[in-house]
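Design job #97: recover the sequence.
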């Protein structure tokens, strides 16, 4: 089979690493010939994933097509789907999720628990919702990795909001933030990975490190799994989905956001689960049986991000020390240039002892730095 990926970042890179285990010819469309995935695919095509003709011409000779980022030309994917190309997730699902306004309306229409919200068309609309604060303002489209998200605590901070179609969500007093990876095959069968608890960098709003399986009360786990399955069943799309959820201090569980693709919160599955999220997506694309999502051992992930004050050719400090640690797996994404907050790699730790996981995660976080020459 010929399988294409729209986007050539680190997610595409890791998907291609898993694809090496199967009899599949891979294609990548990306506008940067030095992107992390370029040298790992069989066929690299230079082009814009947001251009209709480029995406259509890229996909028309393929058997199956997937994405590693939501910002793609959905109209072209719809036409390819009509012509018989398997597009997973479906263009309809991508269209809902890529727009945070449509995504929130989808939750409301399907009675999926989510925070209360208002839709704003411009920053001046925020003045109508002062009594709704504190809240989180999210751009309808274009936000990623913490960008396009702004907390507005009171009236004096309204000027921080976005002057574009956005969602204003009621701020939740979060006890835990978790993510669940759900896979659905072409027959509608679903499997779900154990939850991961996410701990975020307060400066960049990026995942700092995470633990999986997350330690949850049984009732919270049941709620989270039921909600995650309801999201994917409502989207009616084969593919792999990351469902991010909030647990508040009263134990209530709500959806934060969904991603229609492999996800940062599932990187640990490469070493820590019998079938990784990447292997699982390939099985779906190739129409193979779903894999086993069970955890082999508990795990932690530490994100490697560009250090503050450094921009230029990347240099990794402390790498040798981290590589000497037991049950630690380093993934560098092959990005030549670093800048503050840029995702440059991740480190996975596996251990039966959660205290060992958190100890090593904190040690790695303070040992491995990305600077410049």
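Job complete. Output follows.
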């Amino acid at each position: 089979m010929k399988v294409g990926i729209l986007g050539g970042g680190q997610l595409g890179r890791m998907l291609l690493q898993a694809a090496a285990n199967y009899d599949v010819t891979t294609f990548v469309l990306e506008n940067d010939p030095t992107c992390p995935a370029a040298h790992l695919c069989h066929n690299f095509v230079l082009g814009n994933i947001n251009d209709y003709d480029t995406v259509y011409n890229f996909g028309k000779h393929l058997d199956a097509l997937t994405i590693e980022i939501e910002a793609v030309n959905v109209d072209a994917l719809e036409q390819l789907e009509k012509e018989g190309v398997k597009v997973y997730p479906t263009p309809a699902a991508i269209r809902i999720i890529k727009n945070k306004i449509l995504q929130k309306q989808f939750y409301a229409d399907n009675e999926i628990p989510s925070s209360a919200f208002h839709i704003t068309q411009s920053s001046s609309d925020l003045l109508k919702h002062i009594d709704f604060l504190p809240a989180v303002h999210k751009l309808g489209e274009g936000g990623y990795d913490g960008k396009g998200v702004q907390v507005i605590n009171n009236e004096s901070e309204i000027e921080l909001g976005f002057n574009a179609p956005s969602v204003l969500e009621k701020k939740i007093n979060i006890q835990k933030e978790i993510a669940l990876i759900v896979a659905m095959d072409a027959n509608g069968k679903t499997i779900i990975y154990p939850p991961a608890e996410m701990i975020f960098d307060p400066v960049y709003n990026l995942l700092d490190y995470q633990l999986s399986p997350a330690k949850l009360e049984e009732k919270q786990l049941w709620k989270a799994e039921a909600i995650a399955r309801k999201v994917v069943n409502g989207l009616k799309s084969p593919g792999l989905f990351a469902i991010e959820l909030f647990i508040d201090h009263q134990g209530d569980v709500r959806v934060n956001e969904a991603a229609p693709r492999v996800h940062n919160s599932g990187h640990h599955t490469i070493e820590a689960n019998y079938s990784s999220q990447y292997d699982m997506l390939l099985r779906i694309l190739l129409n193979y049986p779903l894999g086993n999502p069970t955890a082999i051992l508990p795990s932690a992930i530490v994100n490697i991000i560009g250090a503050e004050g450094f921009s230029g050719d990347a240099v990794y400090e402390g790498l040798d020390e981290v590589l000497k640690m037991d049950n630690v797996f380093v993934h560098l994404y092959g990005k030549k240039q670093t800048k503050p907050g840029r995702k440059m790699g991740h480190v996975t730790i596996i251990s039966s002892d959660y205290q060992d996981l958190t100890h090593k995660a904190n040690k790695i976080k303070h040992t491995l730095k990305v600077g410049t020459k």
